[in-house]
User: Which sequence fits this backbone?
């Protein structure tokens, strides 16, 4: 393919589409993506120092200096009511999507907003954040937010059945939500790969919520009703936000 | 308990259930109005931009910040949707490659090798609870998950106790916040696919420190070229700036 001209590449694509017309939609989406990437690649590189300086001075002037009471209190201590798990994706920051202001939410962001089951050593960063938020900050709600077009979920769904992986860390991480992938594949009614990914985005949130209950301090707080768990899915293609409760009935076992 | 006592307890239970239901309902309404406010003020007003973003994200920054509710980089540095791929963990720690898989290095791998970001910015901050826990730890082995994680910053604590031994505990914590941040910058270079891109000038590594008491932001950039020419493993920085 090296050295192939643009015309040759387009001719090859047109030939394929004339044989397989159903690929038209996929081709259109990918061409649009390619166009966006190429326009961005050609754009002027940003001056990172200038970008940070502008952002900070604007925050200081428009927010910090105009809310001395709030920021004065926050300088002493934080008492957020929420612990939020959101994906690292640049498009889904909860401060935008749910308008969280400074002080409102302790936020953890990782690939596909996943929560591994309780473990003292493996992926201890997640446990540390949950322990800090629940035991020290005493948050009242934990919310796990999945989202549309999640690269992490797509990566999970793309791992072949024989389990071969090509990344160093990414695929091991996303396999935390293998139960979601299995469920979605078992329940499938002939949906496209993209639809399966959307289902998996939501099911993975439920797997993470279930994993939250393997943390003893979470289980205790939920049983005492001082902590609520919520699942959510932000769809930035359609501009919608789904929010749900897990129906948890925790009752002490008879001794 | 006589019948009247039983009735009273029953009424109390009902009242509790109603209050819980009200609380849950209020929370749902609150979250709903937050999202609708975002949709009206940002999403609908920039529909074409959001539709383009829905196709692909091309952030130029990868930001690693603390989960602390007061330091979200979207607030303090005004990052808009699409600008910054973000990791948030306790005490904005980056562990070295040899420590094995963490949630942080999975995200690093994605940002550097797939998204090909041009800048990594690690942001530390004042009054960090995670750093305070690190500085307060009694020994390595403990049942606390928090301590199992922050112990990764052990070397920063040792350096702090040497360099800042004359200062009080709060001042030592502040020193450690920056020391740990610098250790994280050096740990980034232990990832071969990061060092390769930095050495080619395709990726810059920056440290940032947000002080929310006096509201200032300090920033510096890792000077890879100078580190190589001087043959040192110690951190050398350039382009240090403070805005206050």
Assistant:
């Amino acid at each position: 393919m090296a050295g192939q001209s643009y015309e040759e590449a387009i001719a090859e694509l047109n030939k394929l589409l004339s044989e397989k017309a159903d690929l038209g939609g996929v081709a259109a989406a990918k061409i649009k993506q390619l166009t966006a990437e190429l326009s961005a690649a050609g754009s002027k590189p940003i001056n990172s120092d200038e970008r940070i300086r502008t952002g900070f001075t604007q925050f200081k002037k428009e927010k910090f200096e105009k809310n001395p009471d709030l920021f004065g209190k926050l300088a002493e201590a934080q008492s957020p009511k929420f612990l939020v798990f959101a994906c690292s994706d640049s498009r889904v920051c909860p401060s935008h999507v749910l308008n969280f202001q400074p002080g409102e939410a302790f936020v953890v962001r990782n690939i596909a907003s996943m929560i591994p089951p309780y473990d003292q050593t493996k992926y201890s960063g997640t446990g540390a954040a949950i322990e800090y938020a629940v035991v020290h900050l005493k948050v009242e709600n934990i919310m796990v937010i999945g989202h549309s077009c999640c690269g992490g979920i797509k990566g999970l769904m793309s791992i072949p059945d024989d389990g071969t992986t090509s990344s160093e860390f990414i695929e091991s991480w996303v396999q935390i939500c293998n139960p979601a992938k299995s469920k979605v594949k078992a329940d499938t009614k002939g949906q496209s790969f993209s639809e399966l990914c959307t289902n998996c985005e939501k099911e993975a949130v439920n797997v993470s919520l279930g994993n939250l209950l393997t943390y003893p301090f979470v289980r205790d707080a939920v049983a005492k009703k001082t902590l609520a768990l919520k699942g959510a899915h932000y769809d930035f293609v359609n501009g919608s936000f789904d929010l749900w409760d897990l129906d948890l009935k925790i009752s002490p076992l008879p001794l | 308990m006589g019948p009247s006592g039983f009735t009273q307890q029953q009424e109390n239970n009902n009242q509790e259930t109603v209050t819980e239901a009200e609380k849950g309902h209020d929370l749902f309404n609150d979250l709903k109005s937050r999202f609708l406010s975002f949709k009206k003020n940002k999403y609908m007003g920039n529909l074409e931009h959001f539709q383009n973003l829905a196709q692909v994200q091309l952030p130029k920054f990868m930001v690693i910040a603390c989960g602390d509710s007061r330091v979200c980089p979207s607030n303090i540095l005004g990052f808009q949707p699409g600008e910054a791929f973000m990791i948030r963990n306790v005490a904005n720690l980056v562990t070295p490659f040899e420590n094995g898989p963490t949630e942080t290095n999975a995200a690093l791998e994605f940002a550097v090798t797939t998204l090909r970001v041009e800048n990594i910015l690690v942001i530390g901050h004042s009054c960090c609870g995670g750093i305070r826990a690190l500085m307060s730890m009694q020994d390595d082995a403990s049942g606390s998950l928090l301590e199992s994680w922050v112990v990764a910053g052990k070397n920063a604590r040792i350096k702090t106790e040497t360099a800042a031994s004359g200062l009080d505990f709060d001042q030592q914590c502040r020193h450690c916040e920056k020391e740990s941040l610098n250790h994280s910058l050096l740990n980034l270079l232990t990832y071969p696919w990061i060092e390769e891109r930095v050495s080619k000038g395709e990726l810059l590594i920056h440290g940032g420190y947000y002080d929310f008491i006096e509201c200032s932001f300090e920033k510096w950039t890792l000077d890879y070229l100078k580190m190589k020419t001087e043959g040192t493993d110690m951190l050398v920085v350039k382009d240090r700036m403070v805005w206050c």
In short: Chain B touches chain A through 88 residues (CB under 8 Å). The first helix of chain B runs from residue 3 to 43. The radius of gyration of chain B is 23 Å. The beta strands of chain B are 61-66, 84-89, 119-125, 204-211, 216-222, 237-243.
